[in-house]
Amino acid sequence: MEAAGPVTRAAARKRAPQIPEEQRERRPGRRRPRRRIEEEQEEAVFREVVSFTPDPLPARYYDKDTTKPISFYFSSLEELLAWRPDMEDSFNVALEPSECRQPPLSSQRPRTLLCHDMMGGYLDDKFIQGSTAHTPYCFYHWQSIDIFVYFSHRTVTIPPVGWTNAAHRHGVCVLGTFITEWKEGGQLCEAFLAGDERSYRAVADQLVLIAQFFRFDGWLINIENSLSLAAVGNMPHFLRHLTTQLHQQVPGGLVLWYDSVVRSGQLTWQDELNQHNRIFFDSCDGFFTNYNWQEEHLERMLGQAGERRADVYVGVDVFARGNVVGGQFDTYKSLELIRKHGFSAALFAPGWVYECLEKKDFFQNQDKFWALLEHFLPTHSICSLPFVTSFCLGMGTRRVCYGQEEAVGPWYHPSAQEIQPLFAEHSLEGAGRGWVKTHCCLADAWNGGSSLLVRGLIPPHVGHVAVRLFSLQVPVPPKIFLSLVYKLEGPSGVEVALELTTGDPGSCHVGGIRTLNGTSARHSPRPLRVPPTKLARWVGHCGQQLQGGWVQRCYEVSLRGCLLQDLFVSFARPPGSLEEASFVCRLGELQVVDANSLLAPLPRVQAVTVSRVRWQRATSEEEGPPAPLRLSCTLHWSYVLSPVRCFRIRCRTGTGGGSPGGGPPGPEKPALLGLAFVNQYRIADLLVAAAGPSGDGRVEFLVEPVPKEGFLVPQAEWGRAALLYSTPRT
């Protein structure tokens, strides 16, 4: 590979200008939208003459077979330096930065890093809008980790946005990977490191710009090839510039160095931080060791790390390759030693439970793996409201919306994963046999594709059992509303309730009852049978039986000067019963919201446009009189993203008369197409009726915003656009 010429930082920024957020939200695609022939307040109408002329989309951004948007990577230095933000890139932008969390990542508490390396990467997770994968890999123990690294052997690995959205929702930092390997990697390093500072600064600036634009948090730098003296001499300068610029542009950004090259330029893994690689540690935020260490390596590192012990991430290969401590289901042995010496841990490829064990037992094996590590994995707390989750894993065998089935068939969409609880199994202390266990379950759902199953046993002479679901550190407003949707399986008289703990260094008043200073108090709020009128849009069925046997419980809590710390669900034996009571309860949704936020006006989805239209003839087995068509197109709209969880994209299809403003073709319920987490959505291969010779075909698209508070938005606030299409005139 020939060396790239010097590139200044100014030139790099000229080549890759920022697209302001408001433009990213409003600006249509490169190709002009189809001609708009009418626009009313409720709906915009566009006209299209059906044509089967090929109109290829950029291969980097779209799957060549389906035209669905995909996540991508760069394979060369030239691709990296040539990149500039484009509207096509916006599909891969994360919804928002990482949620507030406690303790912050900057604290000196030892951290846990998960390095996701699975079969080369960019598998089912590359499909930004989801896929129909039957048995995908799914990670959901987010409360136990602090940093997520998406690893592949591509030169510049940009994390698929589904991982970033899921991690950020849980307050977890996300890093991409910059890797060079073998002879080609050495040539690439020489191209930008062996010259003057303009070249390595241009590469660093471009990496910062990519993280900033796509809203992930930084980079793991992995140089797996030897370097010349000139190149290795510039490496600390490159790391310092990258780290400094990233901290300025990406709040909470991180740059980590992997234990590979030493200061002489030789590729010699050390399995520890020492005098041969210390210069790289001093130039960035942290050091990720190789995996073949023993306890004496950890002991030697104590002096090298000094006060930055938490910035040393001791590598653990879960596959247990080489001369390693633990690995596989014995990984806890590694963690025990790492925590004994106060270091952070880097778990490499915990997808071992998916790759090497039976897929049908994946959930049980994953829960077993993380349960064995539980003692060594301090959790972190979320510290912002609203706090809403349906426990959805971002996958399922069907799609459900508030108890109503909307689509049947397997689906996988990591961006759709909701906040996951603390999965646990607890036994009551003493001689009693009481226990409670939580695990995820795809068999039923209230909203999404899965729910949380809680099973347990209340022994005789024990009134109730409870399990902690979430750890929070939320300074709460004067009044909050809570809601729990649940369903008891089988005959059971067990009573289900929410419990919460509060605490604050100062005074905390709960419902007029003062708790002691500096303590934590546990409360069982009283359910509301009827919500206040103004809040009916949020909870309209308090205490009532809902579809599918679900029940909704609502609570109102008045607070002053309090910190919300934990959320429990408790199970009490039937009144008057002293016998052993077993239960199986499915939790469908949990909401904690600021009462005032529910009264704020809702914005309306506006300026829906239709562009990048592609037509295909249906396959022979789909044909009928008249032969149907397959429609692909891109929707854009305008909406402020900060208050939204996602958008549900729906459609109505049919054929209508000649009047463009004739309205929708009927009152049928619009079909769910999918979920969007940015202000655009690619519709791929939608089956529509062919237009007849005497009338237009019509398809209406609807964009339904889903607020973070979790309530249903009236259809008047949805965005709408209709596409009328006709056959060419002969």
UniProtKB/TrEMBL annotation:
<dbReference type="GO" id="GO:0005829">
    <property type="term" value="C:cytosol"/>
</dbReference>
<feature type="domain" description="Cytosolic endo-beta-N-acetylglucosaminidase C-terminal">
    <location>
        <begin position="599"/>
        <end position="726"/>
    </location>
</feature>
<keyword id="KW-0326">Glycosidase</keyword>
<dbReference type="GO" id="GO:0033925">
    <property type="term" value="F:mannosyl-glycoprotein endo-beta-N-acetylglucosaminidase activity"/>
</dbReference>
<keyword id="KW-0963">Cytoplasm</keyword>
<keyword id="KW-0378">Hydrolase</keyword>
<dbReference type="InterPro" id="IPR005201">
    <property type="entry name" value="TIM_ENGase"/>
</dbReference>
<feature type="region of interest" description="Disordered">
    <location>
        <begin position="1"/>
        <end position="41"/>
    </location>
</feature>
<protein>
    <recommendedName>
        <fullName>Cytosolic endo-beta-N-acetylglucosaminidase</fullName>
        <ecNumber>3.2.1.96</ecNumber>
    </recommendedName>
</protein>
<comment type="function">
    <text>Endoglycosidase that releases N-glycans from glycoproteins by cleaving the beta-1,4-glycosidic bond in the N,N'-diacetylchitobiose core. Involved in the processing of free oligosaccharides in the cytosol.</text>
</comment>
<dbReference type="Pfam" id="PF25529">
    <property type="entry name" value="Ig_ENGASE1_C"/>
</dbReference>
<comment type="similarity">
    <text>Belongs to the glycosyl hydrolase 85 family.</text>
</comment>
<dbReference type="Pfam" id="PF03644">
    <property type="entry name" value="Glyco_hydro_85"/>
</dbReference>
<dbReference type="InterPro" id="IPR057882">
    <property type="entry name" value="ENGase_C"/>
</dbReference>
<feature type="domain" description="Cytosolic endo-beta-N-acetylglucosaminidase TIM barrel">
    <location>
        <begin position="122"/>
        <end position="398"/>
    </location>
</feature>
<dbReference type="InterPro" id="IPR032979">
    <property type="entry name" value="ENGase"/>
</dbReference>
